[in-house]
Amino acid sequence: MVITSSPPEDSTVTSYIVMYKERLQNLTGVCKVTEQQTVCRGLTPGRVYEISMQTVDDSWTERRVSSPVLFTFSTRPLTPTEVQVVTVESSSVTLDVTINDILVTALHVTSIEHGGSPPGSAKTADCYADSRHFNGDTLTVTCPAGCSAIGTSIWGTGVYTDDSGICRAAIHDGRLTDAGGQVTVYRYPGQDSYLASQQNGVQSDYWGSWGKAFSFNQVLQSWIAVNESMLLFASGASMEAADNALDNDDATYWSPENLQEEVAFIIIDLQRLWSVSQVMVHSVGNGINDVITVTVQASDIGHPFHWTDMLESNKGELYNSGPQIFGGFTGVGRYWKIGLQTLLGFPPHLTELGFYGNEAPGGTCQDSGNCVAFPVTNIMTQVTLTGYKPATEYVVGVVAATDQAHSLPMFVTFMTAPEPVTNMNSSFDGLLSSVAWDPPSNNLVSYYKLTYGLSASYLWEQHVLITPIRYVTFPDFLQGKMYFVDIFTMYNGQESAPKRAVFSVVLGAPSVPVVTSVAATTMDVTWHYQGDAEAFRLYLAPAPEGFTLTANASEPTWTSVRQTTSMVGRFDGLHPGLLYVIGVRAITDEDESEMSMEVHAADSNG
Q1: Which terminus of the chain is less hemmed in, N or C, by CB atoms within 10 Å?
Q2: CATH T-level fold of 2-74
């Protein structure tokens, strides 16, 4: 904790006495005091402290100590140790959050959308199309089938040179299959090198430095637009002069006048939380006023600031009049304090100052409308967030809060699932099982994936079918069986929730049984069958009085029922000359066919 203070007016202060006391356990300690700054170290996270500050005047023969000034201060609780994505759907996400601070009472969760849904209209591409000639930062293309084996070569893995074939790269990256489909491409900064790899049946090659690239992942970070209104503090006699470092004009620069120390500071208010990974410093290039050492601190709140050290680098170059990038860190804050020092202590001449990063969720629900608070009762808390757009990338910030303070955020990035298909319709015409559907309402689809199989064994035995079209016929479904067919929308490597079609395929009936031989007490029958029966069931009953064999004849009360796997059967124990009804139906373990019946009399001659 850092405290800044000013001495009382019209007094001589030779030193300060600063004490702290932790309320919960009544622990006390002494803070280290320097000129107008006090540093209290070794404090426990998430606790409330009482600070006592006194001034000391040793200029008199008798030491004078002022009455204490008391104020309270809350240290931050610990940041959540882990945030893990459990499930992602088209409009919601479920997270497991792990904390390591017993005083945390709530989680404050905020979300920021990165990029939103790409445009629904797509350009038709061939297997040789690359990204060199498209305008804007994104392009949605529809690729034909067969690009894994033909088309333009590709260089890179995940990020590809801009002259790589888009459709082959999409297959290599797992966004499409060789069946083709729709995919969205994002323009990407050039890379120092592009790695070769074998993925999804496609080989990519290695390439060295190349100035332009594309990827199927959206670029989250960019240079943040800064301006003079963001200036909060600057060293020197005239703070207004520091506007020159934020005016986006290389012809002007800030030179702090009457600098009291060798290090010049400038504090920027970026207006909201940002995750920053690089700082750009642009010196004039004259040597003596060029920045050689850069320090970076960040705070998510002001008054008082909670400064966190992010970077200290002495890699600045003399006589370099171009922008210099200082990175190797990732920090989150709204307020950024940049320290600048020259080689010999001369005032730095700063032409421009820049920050590279992305807007970051975080803070408490008192600070943000796009926030949900969840109570904490255990070391792990599961939270579910809703209201998201399908097929969209989001960054979520999770903050651990006590009654007095909140932690820095822990971030997780995810993409919501695409919307499922609509208007699904299944049919069976006696021979073929078919299913058709419409695309999702937002038309964001690369291709469709179908998984299908017997309902009885679906959990452990499935078949997979990839298709760019919206109609599929299954000629190999067995009669008398139930099948599940799940249809997924696939978009940019993500799959939707399934829509399920259930097929109960009708089992075909055998032919009418034919009596092949008959005696006074026995009768042999046979029949023909073309279908998927596993067995047959034979029925026999004396014909009721007045019984006629019609298409809708009611079944009699069967007196003999037997099962066979062949297409022949024998009945014994018949009464000579009596008229009998004979029935046969095909069966499986899940279904049975309609009955086929015939009428025949036993031989009257014994």
Answers
A1: C
A2: Immunoglobulin-like (2.60.40)
Both tokens of residue 506?
């009708």
Q: The domain at 228-359 falls in which architecture? A: Sandwich (2.60)
Q: Which residue has the tokens 């610990």?
A: 78
Same fold, 82-116+362-415 and 228-359: no
176-214 residue pLDDT tens = 888 888 888 888 888 888 988 888 989 999 998 888 899
Task: With a cut of 70, say whether residue 341 has pLDDT above it.
Answer: yes
d(CA 249, CA 314): 25
User: Using CA atoms in the order 117, 123, 128, 132, what is the torsion angle rounded to 10 degrees?
Assistant: -70
DSSP string, 548-559: ---TTPPP---S
Q: What is the pLDDT of residues 411-438, one digit of tens each?
A: 888 889 999 999 999 888 777 889 999 9
Tell me the CB-side half-sphere exposure of residue 283, using CA atoms within 13 A.
24
What phi, psi does 172 have (nearest 5°)?
-60, -40
The answer to whether 170 and 130 have CB atoms below 8 angstroms apart is: no
One-character DSSP codes across 449-477: EEEEEEGGGTTT--EEEEESSSEEEETTP
Domain 82-116+362-415: which CATH number of 2.60.410.10, 1.10.340.30, 3.20.20.140, 2.60.40.10: 2.60.40.10
What pLDDT, in 10s, does the model give residues 513-541?
Answer: 999 999 889 999 999 998 888 999 999 99
At the topology level of CATH, where does 514-601 sit?
Answer: Immunoglobulin-like (2.60.40)
Q: How confident is the model at residue 78 (pLDDT cuts 50, 70, 90)?
A: confident
- The Cα 366–Cα 229 span in angstroms is 25
pTM: 0.64
First-last CA distance in the chain: 114
pLDDT digits (tens, 9 = 90+) for 24-54: 666 777 777 765 567 777 777 777 777 777 7
121 SS3 class: coil
Residue 87, amino acid: T
C-alpha angle 25-27-30 in degrees, rounded to nearest 5: 160
**Domain range list for the chain:** 2-74, 82-116+362-415, 123-217, 228-359, 422-504, 514-601
User: Which is nearest to 304 in space by CA: 553, 4, 591?
Assistant: 4
Q: Which CATH architecture has domain 422-504?
A: Sandwich (2.60)
Q: What is the pLDDT of residue 20?
A: 67
* pLDDT band per the 50, 70, 90 thresholds, residue 8: low
DSSP H/E element including 351: strand 350-359
Show the DSSP H helices in 112-236 as ranges: 166-172
pLDDT in tens, 277-330: 889 999 999 999 999 999 999 988 877 788 888 999 998 999 998 888 888 888
Q: Which homologous superfamily does the CATH classification assign to the domain defined by 123-217?
A: LCCL-like domain (2.170.130.20)
CA distances from 512 to 515, 560, 572, 586, 595 (A): 10, 18, 20, 12, 9
Q: What angle do CA 239, 243, 244 make, to 5 degrees?
A: 120
